[in-house]
Design brief:
The protein is an alpha+beta fold. It is built from 5 helices and 12 strands.
Length: 275
C-alpha cells in the first residue's frame, strides 16, 4: 500500500511540474534563410522634394528596412518653408506604411535635426547613441540602433548613422566608436548611412575592414552629376550574410542618390531569442 501511495505522489509531482513549465511551440521555417532589402537615403532635410514625393519613391522600391539621414523634426529652416513644423519621420512612416524610429542629433531651427529608421518589421528595442565629438568635429553626430524582429523571436540589429563631414580625423574616431558599439551586439548587424568618406579613405578602407560592404560602388553625390561615393551599407559578421543585389538609384529628390542592397541571412535559427 505504501508503495502505491509513493508512486502516486511521484506521478502527482511530475504532473504539477509539467503544468508549470511553458510549452514553446517551434516556429515554422525558423532556419530558412531570410532575404532582406535594405535602403539608405540622405534626404537633404526635404529641400528638393516634398515628404510625399520622398515617401512615394521609398514605397515604390519596397524595402524592408531604411536608414534615413538629415531628417528634420518641427524645424523652421529658411531654405525649406514648405517643410516648416513637420515631423519628417512620422510623415514618412504614414505615407510608406512603415514603422518608425527617430534619433535627434542636434537642436536646430526651432526643432531637431537627426537620423531615422523605417521598417516593415517591429522594432523590439531602439537606442540613440552619441558618437564622439572632439576638437576636430563640427557638430554632434549619432548612431540610431534598433533590434528588428523580422520573424517571430528572430532578430537582426540595424543601425542608421551620419558621420562628420569636415575631416577624416573626426570620422576615424567615429568609425572606431561604431565598431565598439555594433560589433559586440548579440545579433547579426547591418549599418547604413552617410559616412561622408570615400572608399579609399582610412575610415572606410581600414576602419570598416571587418565589415562586408554590400552596396554598389557607384557614386552617390551630387545627385545631378554623381562623382563621389560617401553613402554605404555594411553587414557583419561576413560569414552570415550573402549579398544578392545592389542598386544606386538615379533620382534627384535630394542631393544624394539613394541606394539599396538585398542580402540573405544564413542559418538564422542560431539567433533565436527564447520568449
Amino acid at each position: 500500500m505504501k508503495q502505491i501511495f509513493f508512486s502516486f505522489c511521484i506521478l502527482a509531482a511530475t504532473i504539477a511540474c509539467m503544468a508549470q513549465t511553458p510549452h514553446i511551440e517551434p516556429v515554422a521555417g525558423q532556419n530558412e534563410a531570410v532575404r532582406l532589402k535594405i535602403m539608405s537615403y540622405n534626404l537633404r532635410f526635404g529641400e528638393l522634394a516634398s515628404l510625399e514625393e520622398l515617401a512615394a519613391f521609398i514605397k515604390e522600391q519596397n524595402p524592408d528596412i531604411v536608414a534615413v539621414q538629415e531628417v528634420d523634426c518641427r524645424t523652421y529652416r529658411d531654405l525649406t518653408p514648405k517643410q516648416h513644423g513637420k515631423d519628417f519621420i512620422t510623415e514618412l512612416g504614414y505615407h510608406t506604411g512603415m514603422l518608425t524610429a527617430y534619433g535627434k542629433t542636434i537642436p536646430y531651427a526651432g526643432g531637431y535635426y537627426g537620423i531615422g529608421i523605417l521598417s516593415k518589421y517591429p522594432l523590439a528595442s531602439v537606442e540613440r547613441i552619441y558618437l564622439p565629438l572632439t576638437e576636430n568635429g563640427k557638430e554632434q553626430r549619432t548612431v540610431l540602433v534598433a533590434d528588428v524582429e523580422y520573424r517571430q523571436n528572430q532578430y537582426i540589429t540595424f543601425a542608421s548613422t551620419h558621420l562628420d563631414y569636415t575631416n577624416t580625423q573626426e570620422r576615424q574616431v567615429q568609425v572606431a566608436a561604431l565598431n565598439e558599439i555594433l560589433l559586440k551586439r548579440q545579433y547579426p548587424v547591418i549599418v547604413a548611412g552617410d559616412f561622408n568618406a570615400r572608399p579609399e579613405s582610412v575610415e572606410i578602407k581600414d576602419g570598416m575592414s571587418v565589415w562586408q560592404r554590400i552596396c554598389s560602388a557607384d557614386p552617390t553625390i551630387p545627385a545631378d552629376n554623381p562623382r563621389n561615393k560617401i553613402d554605404y551599407i555594411f553587414c557583419y559578421p561576413v560569414s552570415r550574410w550573402s549579398p544578392i543585389e545592389a542598386t544606386t538609384y538615379r533620382v534627384t529628390l535630394s542631393d544624394h542618390l539613394p541606394l539599396s542592397a538585398t542580402v540573405e541571412l544564413l542559418n538564422p535559427k542560431s539567433f533565436v531569442r527564447e520568449p
